[in-house]
Amino acid sequence: MLGFGLSIEPQLWALVFVMVRVGAAFVAAPVFGAVGVPLPVRVALSGAVGVLVLGVHPVTPPAQLFGLATFISVAAEALVGLAIGFILQIAFAAPLIASELIGGSMGLGFAQSVDPQNGRSSPALGQFFTIMLTLLFLSLDGHLVLVDMIVRSYAALPPGQAWMGAERLQAIAIFGGYAFVAGLLLALPVGFLLLALNLVVGMISRSAPSLNLFAVGLPMSLAVGVVALAISFPAMGDYMVVIVRESLSAADKLVLG
């Protein structure tokens, strides 16, 4: 009996309890938390990983289904899962910041479209960077590393002792600045060339005030930006690999210690 006259199979209740942490991580994490991923697929993945967790770690769920201790335990499980996924989501915000910096200088700030990852409008250049980062994340087996972290989290933060300390929550908040640093470094090669172009255009405007810079500056910025992206994209791809590895390492250290 689990309270209020309800009864449920102990194995099923343990699986549902484990799926709280796993499902929270999948909701907050990139790729798994995309709008295009159907809800039944997320539930099925959470159940599959939950079966894996129960086969590795002996998880004892709360005795009563409706009770204050149960609600607190469920909230603690959800907090751990959200923390793991949120750290990865922070790193995936770096391409959007880089696209804002590059697109604003190139004159592509007005090019907006619906992002299939989150269902909101975002710069078209940012979607291109996000797709590349997602493909690199999958090619580096980031989704498998995420599942491994979720399974190992039951050893580092077992149910009933899953509340993370204030120092870990503070470290996760401080890690939010990494998105701005990574976005700036990702946009640095193209941004530097566009800055040099703006300096040249500024000197031309001072030397020839009658020149129509609106007719010359915008096409020139767009052309230089496209060429700079084509030249610097291999280096940007290498740094995207660094972003993926740093995010996975940070999730492992900040959450699991």
UniProtKB/TrEMBL annotation:
<dbReference type="GO" id="GO:0044780">
    <property type="term" value="P:bacterial-type flagellum assembly"/>
</dbReference>
<comment type="function">
    <text>Role in flagellar biosynthesis.</text>
</comment>
<feature type="transmembrane region" description="Helical">
    <location>
        <begin position="128"/>
        <end position="151"/>
    </location>
</feature>
<keyword id="KW-1003">Cell membrane</keyword>
<keyword id="KW-0812">Transmembrane</keyword>
<dbReference type="Pfam" id="PF01311">
    <property type="entry name" value="Bac_export_1"/>
</dbReference>
<protein>
    <recommendedName>
        <fullName>Flagellar biosynthetic protein FliR</fullName>
    </recommendedName>
</protein>
<keyword id="KW-0472">Membrane</keyword>
<feature type="transmembrane region" description="Helical">
    <location>
        <begin position="12"/>
        <end position="32"/>
    </location>
</feature>
<dbReference type="GO" id="GO:0005886">
    <property type="term" value="C:plasma membrane"/>
</dbReference>
<keyword id="KW-0969">Cilium</keyword>
<dbReference type="InterPro" id="IPR006303">
    <property type="entry name" value="FliR"/>
</dbReference>
<dbReference type="InterPro" id="IPR002010">
    <property type="entry name" value="T3SS_IM_R"/>
</dbReference>
<keyword id="KW-0975">Bacterial flagellum</keyword>
<keyword id="KW-1133">Transmembrane helix</keyword>
<dbReference type="GO" id="GO:0009425">
    <property type="term" value="C:bacterial-type flagellum basal body"/>
</dbReference>
<feature type="transmembrane region" description="Helical">
    <location>
        <begin position="213"/>
        <end position="233"/>
    </location>
</feature>
<feature type="transmembrane region" description="Helical">
    <location>
        <begin position="39"/>
        <end position="59"/>
    </location>
</feature>
<dbReference type="GO" id="GO:0006605">
    <property type="term" value="P:protein targeting"/>
</dbReference>
<feature type="transmembrane region" description="Helical">
    <location>
        <begin position="171"/>
        <end position="201"/>
    </location>
</feature>
<keyword id="KW-0966">Cell projection</keyword>
<feature type="transmembrane region" description="Helical">
    <location>
        <begin position="65"/>
        <end position="98"/>
    </location>
</feature>
<keyword id="KW-0282">Flagellum</keyword>
<comment type="similarity">
    <text>Belongs to the FliR/MopE/SpaR family.</text>
</comment>
